[in-house]
Amino acid sequence: MSVKRDSLSLSFAVGVYGAAFGAASVAAHFSVLQTCAISLLTFSGASQFAAVGVVGAGGGALSAIATGALLGTRNGLYAVRMAPLLRVKGFKRVVAAQVTIDESTGVALAQNNEKDSRTGFWWTGFGVFIFWNIFTLLGALSAGLLKDPAAFGLDALVPAAFVGLVWPRLTNKKSYYLAIFAFLFALSLAPFVPAGVPIIATSLLAVFMGWRE
Amino acid sequence: MNIYWMTALGTSGACFLFKYLGHNIPESWLSHPRVQRINLLIPVALLSSLVAIQTFTDKTKIVVDHRMAGVSIAIAAFAAKLPFPVAVFGAAVASAIIYRLN
Lengths: 213, 102
Hints:
The structure holds two protein chains of two kinds.
Chain A: H1 2-15, H2 17-27, H3 32-41, H4 45-56, H5 61-86, H6 90-98, H7 102-109, H8 114-144, H9 154-166, H10 173-189, H11 197-211
Helix pairs in contact in A: 1-8, 2-3, 2-4, 2-8, 2-9, 3-8, 4-5, 4-9, 5-11, 7-8, 10-11
Chain B: H1 3-22, H2 33-56, E1 57-58, E2 61-62, H3 66-79, H4 84-101
Antiparallel strand pairs in B: 1-2
Helix pairs in contact in B: 3-4
């Protein structure tokens, strides 16, 4: 019982961020329909913020897709962990794949037995999906009413959200140094290459630093 | 198709592909420690560079403007372990105040 309660309260708390995405996406000149389509179909917060952020900063569709996709690779690794636990086929596997995200995997892995893990995965996955999409629509509609998004701080919303997304990942010295290097590397490239490219280029720093222990 | 729909559908397709592939390949394929390490570091690199680009650039020019005030507030708020919505909202308010003062 408490697994379901925990799943739902986490889902609501996470889903509320959807409003920030909705507002950020509209501020980057995506329509309300496109914004909602991204939340329904991409359904991975960091990838979504990144894709609209790259376009908002003047980058092309390919840079945006590549950045969003690179941030989405971790869901694939979560899926590898979840598959043997869920043991689903066909359409159910398609649904399971779509709701395989940070939160559903996190709740599943935090349980003590397989039954609770499955319950946690599905309830958190669906819970976040529902709230995330409702709040995306609300955020997009509210932001759409504003004539000058910068006057309401919406252009600072996206980088602030990225700070919040990277913060819990700074768990050791290596990640801390990488964050600083990536920050400086991206800025030093920015004046010389098309928008969007500096961001993708920093993934090479991650490969370089992760190569050895 | 315009850049916005291309981005929306392309990102969605790519993200779903990774999720679905993960449900269909054996766990042993990705259990190499190097893959695990790099996988943990890629989001750190991308998200940090996104903070930099989104705060300090306009197209391909380096600029320092009202957004820096907002992001500084966000960093302070996350360092103080405040909840995500509080930090992000605080950042928006700080940025808006500086923007309106200019």
